[in-house]
Records
---
Amino acid sequence: MMQPKTIKELMEVLATAPSRQVLSWSGGAMTAGALSEAVRARCEWLAFNGVGTGDRVAIWMPKGPRAVEILLACMLAGAIAVAVDPTSPPERVANILVTIQPSLLVSDAERLGRLAAIRETAEAEWPVRIEAALDHLPIGPTGPEQLTNPPVTANDAAIILMTSGSTGVPKGVVLSHGNIDAFSDWAISTFAITSEDRFANISPLHFDLSLLDVLTALRIGAAVRLISERDSLFPMDLANVLEETDPTILYTVPTTLQRLANQDLLGQKALPGLRWVLYAGEVFPAPALRSLMTALPRPSYANLYGPTETNVIASKIYGSPPENEADANIGRACDHSSLSLRTEAGREVPLGEIGEICVQGPTVMQGYWGKPELTGLRYFVDLPGVFRTGDFGFWGKDGDLRFVGRRDRQIKLSGYRIDLGEIEACAIRTGLVVAAAAVLADETTICLHIIPALGETFEDTVLRRELSRSLPRYAVPARVVGHSVFPVTASGKVDYVALTTSSHNKTKTGSII
Amino acid sequence: MNDLETTVIEEIRKCATSIDGQTLIDAETRLLDDGLLTSLELLELVVGLESRLSIAIPLEFLSSKNFATVGTICTMLEPIKSET
């Protein structure tokens, strides 16, 4: 039975050099010894509370040392950590809890208070057995017994990452210890990561990028600076934190790098130790990448590709600024993965033709939590193990894979995957509209077209506010446009192309057209 | 509450989806620590304030320290307003 490597080696490394500082955040730092002690104590506390192998633990709290301790404790105890967006509205969190049925929810008093209001009115049985406020979370067991769980194996689920779902309820991507190990092995080898490295963790813990700059980094004994959401809000603040951290490896989404580059902040800051800039989650327009590489020429750059369900499965390393056409170059398969481009029927497409990007390998998720039928849809019936990413691409003449687009109605904004269907489902659920069609108006703006419910006065601010109760903040449409009828295609379907075109026009938010 | 505070609060109410009519906002309300504004809404707020007050907020003024509360926003805006 294979043992999980990441959490095992991580705990061994922490024990090897206990006085070494491995975790820091705004206003604090932690040595390896202190982190190790805290993780073991929280692990015992989980066991004492009856949380064992396969139990889910929802973590709904701001990024910080406590969240990391509990995440690691879950992995050590064999429980499944579910990092929930700390900015998610309580209604969305309640939906997630109903989906994953956690034994334990760890949060803070303020958040639990907001959730309590939802629980009082919930129709379904409340799915959480224990709720613990971070503010009062005991450091160790609360009783004399110290219980232990059975050994964790590489096949056991380790983490559930929530992604946008078209029905309005988020889907849980289940990653096993083995999935995390395979990615971590590849990253350590590819980027020659050592204990001398320093990581700036900009991404939230519920984002798969943190699998590298928290878990992999700590596994190798590198130092991790947790950068709070507040410190990432303004480019100037983020640049100052980066200067203070002097990371050797920076892994984030292109939007963040562009925000820094647009104000020439990376050029101003020396960042003398930086040796890798890694980005993922969305296309980095070639002109923007070129200007960043010009302003900050020393490090190497790599585009890491892969949906949450597979983590990174292809990468493109740039030694010099790319040409114009390179903006959607996602490179070649990682050592651990086998990529193919296939038709809807599962046949491989000829070289140069567009096909769905499919992958086989050890980083591919175990499935969507509690949704085997949905998981099944991501595989071809007669090709077991070949996972369909839903992305399309073609092989270039240089042997690199080019990304073309998505099969479904999912979009990426600042690296966040958003299913436009989820926005529509949530809009209709408000009762304020009878029909909704969400489109991407431009690179950064979601526009929601709606037909108001009979008798409802159309107030875009009211609708946006209602949506913010059930959608993550990044998914709330920036613009809402009312219609008396939707344009339709020849087949009678909503004409999303026409709506997208009308979104480009300067239609005032809140007007009826 | 002075005119500038009133203006800032009105602009915050326009762009913050998490704030409803009943939410009390005063000079001390923590806009960032309590998660009342997202990064996108902060941008909308900056654009709204610039348009409403006919000013340009310099990039170096855009920091979490200056946008922590209505009070700190007003402190930041006062000298910019007086220069225009």
---
Amino acid sequence: MTYFADVAALARKDILLELRSRDTLPAMLLFVVSALVVFHFSLPSDASATASTGLLWIALLFTALLGLGRAFTAEREQRVLDGLVLAPCDRSAIWLAKSLGVLAFLGVAEALALPAYALFFEPVGWELVAAVLLANLGLAAVGTLLAAMAAASRARELLLPLLFLPLVIPVVVGGVGATVVDNPGRYLGFLALYDLIFAILSWASFEYVVAE
Amino acid sequence: MSLRNNRAVLLAAAASVLLVAGLALALFWAPEDADQGFSQRIFYVHVPIALTAYACFGWGAWKALRLLWTRDSRYDLESYTAVHMGVIFGILTLVTGSIWAKISWGVWWTWSERQLTLFLVLFLFYCAYFMLRFSVESGPRRANLSAVYALFGVALIPVSFLAIRLAENFIHPVVFTRDGPQMSGSMFFVFCVCLAAMLGLFASLYTNELMGKRLDARLRELREALE
């Protein structure tokens, strides 16, 4: 049970830090709305509804990227990560807590993005909401691990998109598929499978990313 | 050291003989394909290269797993070399696949060819592997990060394959249906020779590259000891 207490404490720290400093979340919110507005102008007026669905997924992906780029900034600047690694807790708890924080920010950003999408483009159906919720899990799990990797490198912010985008192509396929086809079950199942595989892999390998 | 050199020379010789034999068999001995004619013979190069690329990535991931398991730093170089070879074979797969697509369907690139799309995704993924490696100081940290990333790669292969199959349903209607090659016995034999040749080429290149890199590291150590 101490494991979950550690996770809760660490996640609480991240969310409290964000509530006080308001560094990341307002930027994510503003970004996702700006992206949707830019997409309106980049789509020809006779574009189909499915085109805007694809663009919504790109907007969500890049919003996640924006949040992930900041995920380990505080730890790196104050050298907190060394302390966390030395703390007598399971290192995967750090990953889980950080993922929960990322998941929360992503959820808030989407709570704004989906109504905005419905307002500007197309109505939002239940399958889009389900796909977004499932995709969030995978994006947060994989993204947090890769953000930790990128934070350890010299290139940092530059490296994260390069690591992140090829790995989340299946998420885009699952998400767009679930939204545009008549029978979204297979695609939602695929998203769940992706979440499961990569969450387990990230959970198991995070220790090697932060430890020397 | 001489024993190891001998092995490398033997491997290189075997790979060369197999390559020449495989190409000769593919070009002159294998029966002409009824549908595609002469152009089908690129199959004997393209598919073995693709399978070898998978073998490289798999081997790299296996060495990465060994590294994380045993924390023995020599696996780092082995994993890196295997992934390096995998990327080279991956580029060759993309090039040969593109040539085949141009001859068969008249376009240099088609998203409906699953394997090619998969290789493009893998190519992007493993290019980022190099970016990651070159932006971290060498040491156990870099070894760990590279190993974890290489392991993600082998998980990504089946997941991406599934994703690409699913994506075909809505992104691209299947325009070009290509029946699986109806391989006769002699065709299959030539294919096996070519596959053995490519695997031999990989083994030979891998051994040489690894020897070179180890020599490099040893030289650096000696130079540092002298200074």
